Amino acid sequence: MTNLPEFYRDNCLFQLYLENKVHAVHHGEIVNTLIDRPINPNSISGFGEEQRKLLMIKDVPDYLKFSHSIPKDSGIIRVPQYYGYLVNLKGYTKVEDFLKDQLSKRNIKNLYSKKRKLDGLGDIEYRVLTGPLEESVYADIFADFKQLLIDRFDQKKILNRDLFHWQELYDYSYLRLVNKKALLFVIYKANKPICIALNYVLDHSMFSHIQTYDVAYSTYNMGDISMLFQLEWCLTNNMPIFDVSKGSNPYKEKWCNHRYRLYYEIIYPKDSTISVFKANLLVAKLKLKQKLRDMGLLGNVINMDKWLYLKHGHKLKGTIAK
CA 150 to CA 30: how far, in whole Å? Predict the structure, then answer.
């Protein structure tokens, strides 16, 4: 199977959901503490040459309980970083009950009003694509997917870094889709995608990776309609956890009923003075970055993706995937 694109490696959250694997440091039972159920990824075997080196595992979510297995005479430091958001559907059987608990009456009324208006346009279809299909079908959807992403982030004037790894992502996701480890939630208008979400599934959880929509349909609140579509699927398919990944924005805060913390884990050989120094230096750097985030400077006043858009955005406009 095609390997996970390098962009996502050494990242626990992405590696777990996209590749169903964890680093050997997390070898052993993994439990989702929100619903008290185990998950069963395939562990990456051994440390190899990494055993005597300092290494860092990014984005380890706090709602998963890992059994740590570090090399002898090694130390581990956990540093809090980003927050992540998810929808916990435990105890719900109907999406309407979740909406009543999560959204205001005004928001619910507006959601269904927008959906009726969208459906009233005619030729609107909601499809979930997974499993064996002609590759040309997936290729066509990913071509539309990429162009919709380019247009949407051009509108926002920020860069979506997934676009720089699109061919790798396509090659990898296609195989996951064929094997029913990934899903494409697609809303069509006259057989043309106007909203696409790429998600991955692992046991009782679904992970939101990339989502976008046709900016021409912005007035219909496509993000909300797509979320309703995906939550209905989760409830129908006994999928109580829908993780929408790290990062905060009004959309996630509106829909998600659980915020979790992501940690960076630094593993280092305790008998190496240089490694101990580097580990502590890295910890100090990470703490400073998080302090700047908490102050609203990093990510708001200083937004790397806005800068990258100014530098590279023109290279992506009009380009289309295979």
Answer: 37
317 assigned to some structural domain? no
**Do the strands 74-88 and 241-246 form a parallel or antiparallel pair, or are they unpaired?**
antiparallel
Please list the helix, strand and coil fractions of the chain in percent, rounded to the nearest 5, in that order: 45, 30, 25
Backbone angles phi, psi at 31, to 5 degrees: -125, 135
**pLDDT at res. 10:** 79
What is the per-residue pLDDT for 1?
A: 47
Rg of the chain over CA atoms, in angstroms? 21
Which segments of the chain does DSSP mark as H helices, in order?
Answer: 12-19, 95-102, 105-119, 135-156, 166-178, 222-236, 250-255, 273-294, 304-316
Are 159 and 198 found together in one domain?
yes
Indicate whether 216 pLDDT > 50: yes
Helix (H, G, I), strand (E, B) or coil at 241: strand
Decide which of 162 and 105 is more confident.
105
Lowest mean pLDDT among 26-35, 77-86, 110-119: 26-35
Task: Give the type of residue at 260.
Answer: Y
Q: Is 6's pLDDT higher than 80?
A: no
Q: Which amino acid is at 254?
A: K
Instruction: Read off the tokens for 231.
Output: 């939550």
Domain that holds residue 224: 86-258
Structure tokens at 114: 């927008």
User: Is 254 found in the same domain as 114?
Assistant: yes
Q: What is the DSSP pairing of strand 42-43 with strand 192-202?
A: unpaired
Same-domain check for residues 42 and 176: no
Does residue 316 fall inside a structural domain?
no
Burial of 258 (0-12, 13-18, 19+ CB in 10 A): middle
Task: Check: pTM over 0.70? Answer yes or no.
Answer: yes
